[in-house]
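The methods section describes the discrete structure representation at length, but only in general terms. An entry of this sort, consisting of the sequence and the corresponding backbone structure tokens, reads as follows.
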Amino acid sequence: MEYKKILGKRIKRASVIAQYGSLDAALEAGAFPNMVDATLSELLVLGLLRQNVRTYFTVFGHGSTEIGEVLRIYSQAGLLNVFGIHNEIEASHAAAALNWVMHEKAAVVTSIGPGAFQALAASLVPASNSIGVWYLFGDETTQDEGFNMQQIPKHEQFLFPRMLETMGSGYSLQEPWSLSTALRRGLNKVNHPYHAGPFYLSMPMNTQPLIMHGYNLRELPCGTVPDLGAAVGDYKQAVEWIQNSQSVLIKVGGGGHNASREIIRLADLSDAVCVLTPIATGIVPYEHPRCMGVGGSKGSICGNFAMENADLLITIGTRAVCQSDCSRTGYPKVRKVININANLGDALHYQDTLALWGDASATLQELNTWLGKSTSRNSLAPSDWFKSCQQKKVEWEAYKQERFDHPTLKDSFWGKEVLTQPAAIKTALDWAADKNVVNIFDAGDVQANGFQIAADKNPGKTFTDTGASYMGFAVSSILATAAKKDSPYFLAFSGDGSFLMNPQVLVDGIEYGAKGCILIFDNNRMGAITGLQIDQYGEQFATWHDRSIDYLQMAKSMPGVLAVSGGSSPAELKKALDEAFAHAGLSVIHIPVYFGTDPLGSLGVFGRWNVGNWVEKTQQLRHQIGL
């Protein structure tokens, strides 16, 4: 049987590469020839190995048995880490978190059909947050002998690859000898310095095991995607706009992550205040006098005040998500925009824009040089604009503190005093502040309260998927800690609704040695949507359940999971966090939390949003503003 010959060569190749440390080193040493006979799947794995993709989150099926066999051999040789887990959505989230937090690339492998669709849906997270992830999906055979089980049941070609191309960037390995092109396009997308994202490889089941005779390993692409430089633009005009403005606002998005110092310098030179998008916490330290925290549909008193009253907007690395700019109504007095962005479409999002299309850090250095040569406002007394924003920040701090000073409320579901979400989240964030702990927030009320409270001093401490708002992301992300020995401890902030989307992480996290804690903020409902229903229509409907779920008992049923009650006070929650942190692996803390109409139970809403019965008013305002 020909495969037995291929198997022997495959095992030997993997052993030699492990001995030399890399494919390139083995080739350079002449340990084996450039021209090899290998299956398409093995060459694909070799190509990804050359790009330093060594982690695979897999849910194997009949559409991925051949690549699974390759991964078996290469993992046994110590070249790869393969995590066979229980859900494709979980696999995608773990891969996204691994790159987002620890900057290590991974691949997700699924079968054809439902599994691939699940992973495809979950890839909204890396697509929305510019995170590079490889997706290797089984697909129907190329010879079209009739329907393959689990394919899209239509008499048409290339249906799944067409869907992949709609979602993002992809390639179908219909022709095995196009592998190098597929790998090059994937490298360019997954490694893009500004607009990384998912790259989808469609792997027909009959081409995966096809033996390619005399394949030249030099065709497997490698390399890096270069950074952009400073934007080529009208910096003189930008300086004039800044100097003629009375109230400058800098809106910081995730694309400003490498430009903290330059952003603060710009704020000082232009007498601006900074407002953060939820994923930008820490880029400008919250404690900095010019930082107004978050602004937008949820927002804050100071952040939204600055947005409502600015006359010049400088945006840095943001794509203007609806909740970030109040569905394009967040800047009613702004008439000019300086937009610094590496994406041309985002750079030209608003009307009356001076677009500076380039790397944020390099562009800001150039802009600051121009500003520094002109009359600086550094020596002037604090302006009315700065003082008014500062006063609003004082109000916001007092507003939050009132809620922290009343950490419990009587809850009708629990029938007793329980922690409010603001108090519980504040307690956990304060506990994590001086530890090697990464905070990851799931979608919903927990997420919104979290980014309103977060007061990070540096980026990389708090992660929140506000682009896709994918429920279950935070809990699944804990699996990423198993893929890297020096991983920080993950603290997953999750509502009960989000946790139930991906509870299988309790099994997989224990199996592979994940280290982290899941905080389940339990108000027996999807609180964000119930609250929205009440705010818009005065009624709640089909967003809660009537029976209490024993999450601690669920967690305890998983051997090795530490399950702890978070209690009903900040002191009890701190004690539970200490106990979880001392545990070697995965833990769960269950926290009953308040839901109701008492204003002390949440941090409130300060902006607009184009949803529900707010649509007409919001859209009218948007067209009235005309930005």
Observations:
- The first strand starts at residue 35 and ends at 39.
- The radius of gyration is 26 Å.
- The chain has a mean pLDDT of 93.
- Residues 366 and 516 are 42 Å apart (CA to CA).
